[in-house]
Specification:
With 178 residues, this protein is α/β, with parallel strands linked by helices. It has a domain of 109 residues. Helix 5 links the parallel strand 6 and strand 7. The longest helix has 11 residues. The chain starts with 11 loop residues before the first strand and ends with a helix.
Length: 178
């Protein structure tokens, strides 16, 4: 199985981080992300115009473990995009929460397409295949960061094939891990 490498060419780059997906991938490969080092890694590849981090958050009066991270990211070079989680009752009568940020990420990526040479998507969700294809049609190179180093793989095969480049998060361990 071949792995594609990100291009180390200079150009304008935007990072799009699906926060919950990156967290799950890091957990699956046993890696805690150092977001300062992650940003520096991609700044070494080109001019990072924006580094977006997407996450749904619990209501303001509730403690939510991601809040300290979101605050840190907001003050340290990331554009944090959030929305409130929705609470609902499932078919079995249990209380559940939902907070999908896929549409927000896709809209922002399409808006940035005319300003960048490369987009780096941190997600393994196949739902992003149409977004990647649309960005490519606009001439943007799309790299995807996820993992195949765990069982099951965190990257959907369709997304890996659609991307111009794939980088396994596990391969970044020494450069972006804590």
């Amino acid at each position: 199985m071949s792995r594609h490498k990100l291009t180390r060419r200079h150009g304008k780059i935007a990072l799009f981080i699906d926060g919950p997906n990156l967290h799950a991938t890091g957990k699956a490969v046993g890696l805690k992300i150092d977001f300062r080092r992650l940003l520096a890694e991609f700044q070494a590849m080109g001019a990072v115009l924006r580094a977006f981090y997407y996450s749904a958050v619990a209501e303001e009066n509730e403690f939510f473990s991601v809040r300290p991270l979101l605050d840190w990211l907001d003050y340290n070079g990331y554009a944090v995009v959030t929305k409130p989680m929705k609470e609902f009752v499932d078919a079995a009568g249990g209380r559940k929460t939902k907070g999908n940020m896929d549409v927000e990420l896709a809209v922002d990526a399409m808006e940035m397409a005319g300003s960048v040479d490369q987009i780096v998507l941190f997600s393994g969700d196949a739902v992003f295949c149409p977004l990647v294809a649309a960005l490519q049609r606009r001439g943007v190179r799309v790299s995807v960061v996820s993992s195949m180093s765990c069982n099951p793989p965190m990257i959907a095969g369709d997304l890996r094939r659609q991307a111009d480049a794939f980088l396994d998060l596990n391969d970044l361990r020494t450069r972006v891990g804590q």
